[in-house]
Design a protein that fits this description.
By secondary structure, the protein is α/β, with parallel strands linked by helices. About 45% of the residues lie in helices and about 20% in strands. This is Demethylmenaquinone methyltransferase.
C-alpha cells in the first residue's frame, strides 16, 4: 500500500483517513480550489459571509474551516471567530496565513463531539465540510447545541444542479477533469477523486434541508449558487 493509498479517504469517511488526506493537500488547497472552480470559490465565500451576516462583538464558529479563508472573511467584520477543523495540517496552514488576526482563534475539533459549551455562539457555519463528516446528522445536532437561542446556521455545500443537461456536464467534469486539474496544480489528485465520489453520493438540497430541520432548526431555506453546483442553506435556532 502506498502512502497515498493510506491517506486516500473513501465514502466510509474514517476521520483519521479524511484528516490525513486534508493534511496532505493543505499547502495547495486554496490554489487548487480556485483553479478547479474557475474562481467561483471567492464568490461562494462572499455569499456565505453575507448569509452569516457577522456583526462586531458576535461569537461565530466556522466549523471545517480548513485554511481559514472563510474564517478570515467573517473576522473582518469585527466578530470573534473560532476556526475549527479536525485536520491539524489545515489548521497549521490557516494559522500561517491568518494567525495575525486578533479576533480569529483556531481549535482542533471533531464535528460530532464539539469541545464547546451549550449556547456559546451567535452563529455557526460550515463550508464544504459537512459532506466529509462520517455522521453529518450528529454534526448538525452538535451545531444546534452550541448555538444560542435565536442564533443562525449557514451551511454552504456542494449539491445537485437541478438542470439535467448541466448536471450531466458537471458530473463529467468532476469525474474526468477535476482530478487532472488537481494534479496539474500540484495537489494530491487522489484527494479529488474522493471529492468527486463524496459529491456524487451527497444528498440533494431538499434532503439536506430535511436533515437540518430534523436536528431542531427552524426557518430552513436554501438557494442555489452557480446553477446548483453548491447550495447555501440557512436556518435559525428557536428563540
Amino acid at each position: 500500500m502506498t502512502s497515498n493509498d493510506k491517506n486516500r479517504a473513501d465514502l466510509g469517511k474514517d476521520p483519521a483517513r479524511v484528516s490525513g488526506m486534508f493534511d496532505q493537500v493543505a499547502a495547495g488547497y486554496d490554489r487548487t480550489n480556485t483553479a478547479m472552480t474557475f474562481g467561483n470559490d471567492a464568490l461562494w465565500r462572499a455569499a456565505t459571509t453575507r448569509a452569516v451576516a457577522p456583526k462586531p462583538g458576535e461569537r461565530i464558529l466556522d466549523l471545517g474551516a480548513g485554511t481559514a479563508s472563510s474564517s478570515a472573511s467573517l473576522a473582518r467584520s469585527g466578530a470573534q471567530v473560532v476556526a475549527a477543523d479536525f485536520s491539524p495540517g489545515m489548521l497549521a496552514e490557516g494559522r500561517r496565513r491568518h494567525g495575525a488576526m486578533r479576533n480569529l482563534s483556531f481549535v482542533q475539533a471533531d464535528a460530532t463531539a464539539l469541545p464547546f459549551e451549550d449556547g456559546e455562539f451567535d452563529a455557526v457555519t460550515m463550508s464544504y465540510a459537512l459532506r466529509n463528516v462520517n455522521d453529518p446528522k450528529t454534526a448538525l445536532r452538535e451545531l444546534y447545541r452550541v448555538t444560542k437561542p435565536g442564533g443562525r446556521l449557514v451551511i454552504n455545500e456542494f449539491s445537485t444542479p437541478p438542470g439535467k443537461l448541466f448536471r450531466g456536464a458537471y458530473r463529467f467534469y468532476n469525474a474526468q477533469v477535476l482530478p487532472r486539474v488537481a494534479r496539474v496544480a500540484g495537489t494530491n489528485g487522489d484527494a479529488y477523486d474522493y471529492l468527486n465520489e463524496s459529491i456524487r453520493e451527497w444528498p440533494d438540497q431538499k434532503r439536506l434541508s430535511a436533515w437540518i430541520r430534523d436536528a431542531g432548526w427552524q426557518d430552513v431555506a436554501y438557494r442555489n449558487l452557480s446553477f446548483g453546483i453548491v447550495a447555501l442553506h440557512r436556518a435559525r435556532k428557536p428563540a
